[in-house]
Automatic annotation (TrEMBL):
TM spans (from-to): none
Cross-referenced Pfam families: PhyH
PANTHER family to which the protein is assigned, alphabetical: PHYTANOYL-COA DIOXYGENASE FAMILY PROTEIN (AFU_ORTHOLOGUE AFUA_2G03330)
InterPro entries: Fungal_Metabolite_Diox, Phytyl_CoA_dOase-like
Protein name: Phytanoyl-CoA dioxygenase
Amino acid sequence: MASMTTNREEAGIKMFECNPNEEEVSKKFDEDGFVCISALFPGRVVQELLGSYERSFQECFRALHKSGRIPFPHSHLVEEGGGDVSYPLGVGVKHGYREIVMRSPGRYEVTYGLSASKKPFDGAVADAKVEHIVRALFKGCDYYLSSLSVVTATPGCPQQAWHADGGHVDLSQHQPCHCLNVFLPLVDLTPQLGPTQVRPGTHHHTRNLAPMMLAAKARKTLRPPLTPILNAGDALVFDYRVLHRGLPNVTANSRPILVMAFAKKWFTDILNFPRRSMLHAHHDQSSDQSTEE
């Protein structure tokens, strides 16, 4: 696991207040591809979100098992004696459902039971502080909630590969952000719990990744990864195009992060979840094509 410091200032991570100056936060976001917001939601709200999600997470696996889609009704199974870990789903969109995808071994993104129109998630999505930040980062452009999910890193899950959540809409030149994630930890993060690591500035490089990364390295402008160690209720807001990864969760506890993905009105994300639903009858999974592995 990559070395890191838990001191945000030493790590070069600026924490903005929950009602930041629009020009300042927008400039930082454009430069780095991400910003961190302190205390976006109070503890009471976070606990409501966590409690509701934990029930949905458990129910999701029970429902999958009841319908015969997975071999056991849990997110993971550890062999006796603390041996190998088994997971009930395969990795990637082609093995998942509209309600749940295992992004990497033991790391699930879940929409099951989450509704932007029902408590407690409706309040989070419509929160004035969230709206203030998103509108500033989109420079006042109209936007909508593209997806609402929770990413859970289960105990023992390994490190993810570096990846971006989506591509560029223009490969000839860099364009402003068209889609972003608001990551809200529902528990206090630690270096051991599998926090999200970000590569600052790479939302520019992913337009043509290999040559642009090499060029940045040659010019000595390629910046080292940063790992925000956030408290529950803080937020990591990042451009879909920036490189990031989840670090290993080496604890006995899960690490749930609420994800609110916002996009400009004209953009539709078709990559991150399959069309098929676990709530519908079985059908041939090969009919659902996806570019994600």
